[in-house]
Known about the structure:
There is one protein chain. The chain has one domain. The chain is 75% helix and 0% strand. It has helices at residues 6-23, 33-38, 43-65, 72-75, 78-94, 97-119, 132-149, 153-162, 167-191, 197-219, 226-243. It contains eleven helices and no strands. It is mainly α.
Amino acid sequence: MTDYTTYQWLLMAIGACTIGLAKAGLPGLGILAIPLFASVVPAKESTGLILPMLVIGDIIGVALFRQHAQWKFLWKLFPWTMAGVLAGWQALGWLDNAQIRPLIGGIVLIMLALNLWRQRHPDLKDIIPTGMWFAAVIGLSAGFTTMVANAAGPIMIIYLLAMRLPPAAFIGTSAWFFLLVNTFKVPFSAQLGLISLSSLKFNAILLPGIALGAFIGFRFARRVPKHVFDRLVLILAAAGAIKLFF
């Protein structure tokens, strides 16, 4: 831990704060944590370092919105998501850090593009199919993406919009999905050596950042004009993702 500079610790603290913010009011911000951590910690190890913090953030999200979940939309997704997680686990076992860095960067850029496309099509729920094959595609994509890069948020937004859920049900269903899926990922990350006693010590140190972000997200962050917030997140996350290619 003493090998990291003050600047690097600051980046990781900001990353932890964005996780809390994402789980308690500003879901689009979560993707920013991925390039922040991957710019400090080796890219492959960063996926395991982030995961326990995501689980903590998911617990906060479920505590706030648990009663609003619509489980019927999750049951048909889970088998495919688990298959995607297993595929991502195999991919992480084969790839090294030099290969993982651009892969994570590419996934983040694709997810940002997907999110931008969603924002520019407000009638999205009327044009996306809702059949079983759609759940299979979403589940596999979300499972692989979340295992490799912890970046499945935009995919789930597309799915839940297509299910035409009201706002509270949208948030509650998403919170339960990510809590269960991220918890499911833990033993696979541990088997790959990406979660260890050392990484859990980092998580413990950064825990106040998650709590602070959750508090800010729940109490204050929703007052930020949405168009300003979305643009800022897009620019910062894209810059961080591009940096992973070099």
